[in-house]
Design goal:
The protein contains 2 helices and 14 strands. It has 218 residues and is mainly β. The protein is globular, with a radius of gyration of 19 Å.
Length: 218
């Protein structure tokens, strides 16, 4: 019996390890690259997303759109890392104002709805929250801004403001769990989706950026 229990525990640890490896894969490389879906917006030309050997090219020409990968079921992610580069950027914008929120690149994370116990012990689900790590805007590096489209449940974290050097790959690693706790004052739920965006519709300009080696780690 003891030997069988050890065997089951060993198999469980192996499966957990392999599951971790699967989650830590580069989401912008096959076979994961095929799972991304384009989300367009009515009346706007879509930003063009092209998977190339160098990485994912994000080309916004007076356009806006999201490239989204849903995690089903939602995953208990702790950290995220990626590399990105901006080759061309539009004018600096005020990201907290609708109609002036262009930026060449952003990596977004959506979180699964949280359960909350209200009056008389009834449970309901809070709206899904989001964190958008962003390259662009007039705010300083490290600033946490209110997302104008999700005022109660979304924030923008500036990793590189407008004016950052162009044409250079930069590596990012963010602690999603720590950032979520700091911003929303609660434990982070599972991650339900990740998205990449670049938009230039408000400024009627053009931007070109790249993202590669996007890895989520439990």
């Amino acid at each position: 019996m003891a030997a069988r229990m050890k065997w089951l525990i060993g198999i469980g640890l192996l499966l957990a390890f392999l599951g971790g490896l699967a989650q830590a894969a580069d989401l912008l490389r096959p076979p994961h690259a095929q799972d991304w879906r384009l989300q367009t917006f009515p009346g706007l030309s879509p930003t063009r997303y092209t998977f190339l050997p160098e990485g994912l090219q994000v080309h916004a020409l007076r356009s806006s759109a999201l490239l989204i990968k849903r995690l089903e079921p939602p995953q208990p992610i702790r950290t995220a890392s990626w590399q990105w580069r901006v080759d061309q950027a539009g004018p600096a914008t005020e990201l907290t104002q609708k109609g002036r929120d262009d930026r060449p690149l952003a990596v977004h994370f959506w979180f699964a709805a949280e359960k909350e116990t209200g009056a008389q012990g009834h449970q309901h689900r809070m709206p899904r929250r989001s964190i958008s790590y962003t390259w662009g805007g007039t705010a300083a590096k490290g600033a946490v801004l209110t997302n104008p489209f999700l005022r109660r449940d979304g924030v923008i974290v500036i990793l590189h403001p407008a004016g950052a050097a162009l044409g250079e790959w930069r590596r990012e690693q963010v602690d999603l769990a720590a950032d979520y706790q700091r911003i929303f004052q609660s434990a982070m739920p599972a991650v339900s989706a990740v998205a990449i965006s670049g938009d230039s519709d408000d400024s009627h300009s053009e931007s070109i950026g790249w993202v590669r080696e996007l890895v989520l780690t439990p």
